[in-house]
Structure formats: C-alpha cells, structure tokens
Amino acid sequence: MAITEAHAGRRYPAIDPYQVSAAKIAEFATALGDDNPRYRGQSPIAPPTFAAVICAPAWNQLFSDPELELSLERIVHGDQRFTFFRPFRAGDVVIAKVTIDRVRIRAGSELISATVDMSGRDGDQICSAQATFSHVRRAPQ
Amino acid sequence: MKATVAEAVEVGTQLPSLTVCFTRERLIRYAGAATDFNPIHYSEHSAKQAGLPGVVAHGMLTMGTALRVVTNWIGDPSRVTSYSARFPRPVVVPDDADGVEVEFSASVSAIEGSLVTVRIEAISDGLKVLGAARAEVDLGVRVPHRDHES
C-alpha cells in the first residue's frame, strides 16, 4: 500500500532530542556563505533556516515510513514556510515532531504537506515549519 | 538592529542585492551541514533517474542564501519572524569550477507597526528559482509613518 489522502493527520513520535551546538551553527552558516557575527563565537544564534537541520530527521521519519512507499530520490521540495517564535541558540535541546497535514494525489505524483513543530525542552515553541513535497510516482513497469 | 533601518524604511525600499555562485562544492558543504543527503544534490546518475537535467541545488540552500539579503540588512537575524518560499524550478549546478550564478534581490512590500514584510527574488539563468518568497521581520520599534513625497 502506498501513500493515500487518508494519511492526512498521521503523527510521528518526536525525534531524538536535537542538541544545537556552536560548531554546527558555524558549519551551517559557512555552508550558506554567511559571515554574520551573530552565528559565531561562544553563544551564537543560528541562521533562521537552520530549522531545516532539525527538520531533516523528522522529514526522514516520514520519507522512510514503509507504509507510505516513498523513495527519497523521487522527492522534490515544493514549498516551505517557517514561523519563528525565537531563534535557535547553541545549547538548545530541541524536540521536533512531524505531522502529515494533507496528501493530494495528482497524475504521476503525490503532494505531501507536513508540519514540523520544534520546541525546547520546557515545551516553549521555537519554530514551526510547513513544507510541501512532491513525490514522483514510478511509472508502472 | 542597525539603527538606520527603522528610520529609513518605507514600502518600496530596496535592500542591497547579493550574487552568489552555487558550485558542486557548495552543494556538498550544504548537504553535510544540513544533513540532507538526497543523491539528486550530488549524483548525476540519481538526478537523471529522478527526471532532472542534472545535479540540482537544495531548495533550502537557495532559500537560506536568499535570506542573507534580509539579515545583512537588519543585522540581527533574531528579528526574522517568518519566512516562506516556493521552489518553482530547480537550480541545475554544473560540474565545473564556476558553477551557476544566483542573483538575490529584495524590497519592502508592507509595513505594519514594527513588522516589515520583505519580498525576495532569486534569479538564475534568467528564471525565478524562488516563488512568492517573503520574510517578515520585527524591527522592535514602530516604523514612523511617512507621507508620500509630493
């Protein structure tokens, strides 16, 4: 069985708590070519789209769900929205949970909308990330 | 925040633009930093299998780089309260030293109290590679209302 519209509402358990480090923030900022001093030093904040680093294991949970029969190399990121309640900081321990909001079946592809909610250990909201992915269905052999 | 931003901002204000070259090296770097190892971002074979013309940049690399225009302008990245974009077409990155150029520009599209909405454009090879990209920033101080100059 593959992904269907009935998978809307499917919730996944929280990923292993993600510990934000100054080193990972600096690595991410360097990958973006961004030399903003707020991303460096002993107690940096992270670039806003660092949220994608924490979303990655949550999204992978969904992409590798055997019931959905998805294949990573046929998944394309269609759109992304982030709402930031506060920046990610070095030392944060982040809990991320992904939920499938909606599935739309199109000719040859599936559109999957999912939200990742990211919060601190005390339950304070840090960021909410809503994405749509398009999964290209393999042509019948 | 840079003190001058709230004082000078108005609808239509253009932010300093940015041109960045996406090379294969940058893609590998971003894949590692973001832990996004989808093979379409480094393997020609996998990209072609997926129906793409070649290795493509991560949408999030384009989106993350585009936001530099906004954070360079305000100085303090913690002022960004929301950011959204669509990925209408992939940025194909050739396997050579030069890579592909992406040009980022942005302008203020709305102001409400201390909240400023910035519209961002990303162009590569003459085509838009981000759609409807918007960042909202909270300047922390109410932006003074300015009447249009006569």
Largest interface: A-B, 35 and 41 residues
Report the average pLDDT across residues of chain A: 94
Strand residue percentage of chain B = 25-35%
Q: What is the H-and-E element order of chain B? A: HEHHHEEEEE
Structure, explained:
The complex is a heterodimer of chains A (141) and B (150). Chain A is of the alpha+beta class and 141 residues long. Chain A has a single domain (5-136), classed as Thiol Ester Dehydrase, Chain A, CATH 3.10.129. Chain A is 16% helix and 35% strand. Chain A has helices spanning 22-31, 51-63; strands spanning 18-19, 75-84, 93-106, 109-119, 125-136. Chain A has a five-stranded antiparallel sheet, covered by helices on one side. In chain A, β4 (109-119) and β5 (125-136) form a beta hairpin. Chain A is elongated. Chain A starts with 17 loop residues before the first strand and ends in a 5-residue tail after the last strand. Chain B is α+β, with helices and mostly antiparallel strands. Chain B has a domain at 3-22 and 57-138: Thiol Ester Dehydrase, Chain A, CATH 3.10.129. Chain B has four helices and six strands; from the N terminus they run αβαααβββββ. Chain B has helices at 3-8, 24-34, 44-49, 59-74, and strands at residues 14-22, 80-86, 100-112, 115-124, 127-128, 131-138. In chain B, strands 1, 2, 3, 4, 5 and 6 form a six-stranded antiparallel sheet that branches. The two termini of chain B are 30 Å apart. Chains A and B meet through α1, α2 and β2 of A and α2, α4 and β2 of B. β2 of chain A pairs antiparallel with β2 of chain B.
